[in-house]
Amino acid sequence: MKTENAYSSKELSPTTWPDFEALFAKHNGVWGGCWCMFYHTKGEFLIKGHGPDNKKTKKALVKKRRTHGIIVYSGKTPIGWVQYGPKPELPRIDASKTYQRLSLDDEGKRFWRITCFFVDRNNRRRGVAGFGLNAALASINKKGGGIVEAYPSTKPSKGASLMWSGTVSMFAGAGFDVGIATRQVERCNAKARLMSQAL
Ligand SMILES: CC(C)(COP(=O)(O)OP(=O)(O)OC[C@H]1O[C@@H](n2cnc3c(N)ncnc32)[C@H](O)[C@@H]1OP(=O)(O)O)[C@@H](O)C(=O)NCCC(=O)NCCS
């Protein structure tokens, strides 16, 4: 998928794993070795070293097709990452008491969530995350669509490393309903905003 700004994207798969690995390895596994495993888990989350255990688990999930994400490329170089998935695949949000209190009705609907963005430190503020978001939404659509939840940071001024869940404006620009974004949900120690969009 080429666009005028020359980015392209591919789905994370056993074939594209080496690209994901290269991007994350360049940044020490991201967040000191998360390898984008945090939202796949509940409870305590340990990172030892640069996260070889997380990397191994992520690779196994890729093999079993139990993790989803978009890799963004500039030419052949992987420069960006967006994690999405069906709700049960990313259970950490469900464990949040604040989220549970929202008592969202998901009966009979297909729910997705977009949890993480990561862009190569040399390629930021050039629309990579926005491009990846659109690619993730296109992928969700291809898989049958549903309701997509996102939890963008309400405090972007705190710095890029705390903006892993994206910004409100990014999601609003991609068609998310800001009107629903009135309730706060917990995202680790920060506040995030719940927004959703029907695809
Ligand atoms: C947050 C991050 C994903 C943004 O990626 P990006 O490609 O630079 O973002 P884009 O250029 O597509 O911009 C998207 C929006 O965010 C805003 N933005 C990007 N970086 C920002 C910053 N540091 N401060 C404030 N706003 C910022 C842009 O202005 C843009 O806003 P708009 O939609 O109103 O135009 C990137 O800085 C990053 O990877 N940070 C580290 C996150 C991380 O540690 N993730 C680990 C978990 S996997």
Task: Summarize the structure in words.
The chain has about 200 residues and is α+β, with helices and mostly antiparallel strands. Helices cover about 25% and strands about 25% of the residues. It has a six-stranded mixed beta sheet with strand order 1-2-3-4-5-8, with helices on both faces. Coenzyme A binds next to β4, α4 and α5. Coenzyme A binds near residues 116, 117 and 118.
Mean pLDDT score: 86
H/E topology pattern: EHHEEHEHEHEEE
Helix content: 10-25%
Poorly predicted runs: 186-190
Radius of gyration over alpha carbons?
16 Å
Describe the structure concisely.
The protein is α+β, with helices and mostly antiparallel strands.
Descriptive keywords:
alpha+beta; Aminopeptidase; 6-stranded mixed beta sheet; two-stranded antiparallel ribbon; 8 strands; 24% helix
Layout of strands and helices, then pairs:
Elements: E1 7-11, H1 17-26, H2 52-63, E2 68-74, E3 77-86, H3 97-101, E4 111-119, H4 128-142, E5 147-150, H5 168-173, E6 184-187, E7 190-193, E8 195-198
Parallel strand pairs: 4-5
Antiparallel strand pairs: 1-2, 2-3, 3-4, 5-8, 6-7
This protein binds coenzyme A.
